[in-house]
Fold:
Amino acid sequence: MPELQAKELVDVLNIKKENKETTPPNHYTEAGLIKLMEEQNLGTKSTRPVIIKKLRDRGYIQGTKSITATNIAIAVCSVLNKHCEVVTKPKLTAMIEEDMELVATGKKEKNEVVDKTRGLLKDIVKILVKERNDIATELRSATRNDMTLGNCVKCGKQLVIRISKNNKRFAACSGYPNCKNTFPLPQKGKLEATGKVCEVCGYPIIKIVTRKGSGVEVCLNHKCSKRIEQQKVYEAELMERQEAKEKKKMQFAKKDKEVTKKKQN
Ligand SMILES: [Zn+2]
Ligand SMILES: [Zn+2]
Structure:
């Protein structure tokens, strides 16, 4: 939109209605993310892939062809943005890296850079410690819907998603240590509560959302007969999809061969 001055004449006859939609935010591939980090001066050639792997391992990003931020990542960013914006902005990291580069090339004193960085981090930690309770409450409420799957049949408390020490997710009863009920969870795909309950065992039905957005609903209880049945159907579907993919690949390869043959003739 052009800016207008008071009393300016506007040509209303030539106004065109355009059907432009706001473009959705970009989804990045790993290479795209690395390029973006390069542009923002974040990390080095060797640390950038390591940083991305760390984000994935900690459950902040998912997907490969199109990397998306998980709900927890969005929650962490928005809560930190509110309380201590400097942590979430690339400027700070880029500045520290730049300083280190200057130390490495002998253009700055190591002690000077260490003191400066220490001072900066001290200020940040001070803010985070002061506001830790608010930050924790906000994070908890932002991720509550993600984490709760439904009720425990044994004690009636909530079953929630937890991350084990070796970074595997599983469902556990929030009544722990009184109730030690746990269930294994698929490690891939976003999990959602459906609010439904299994008619066979009474445990919650969860939805596993795949990368393309479609999902399957299964009983949380891996020992339930219904779940075993659902699992078979799901696995058969996966197999079918895989076979269809292979078939397509073969067809393409065949076509390619024909084309090269024609060219040779
Ligand atoms: Zn329980
Ligand atoms: Zn069941």
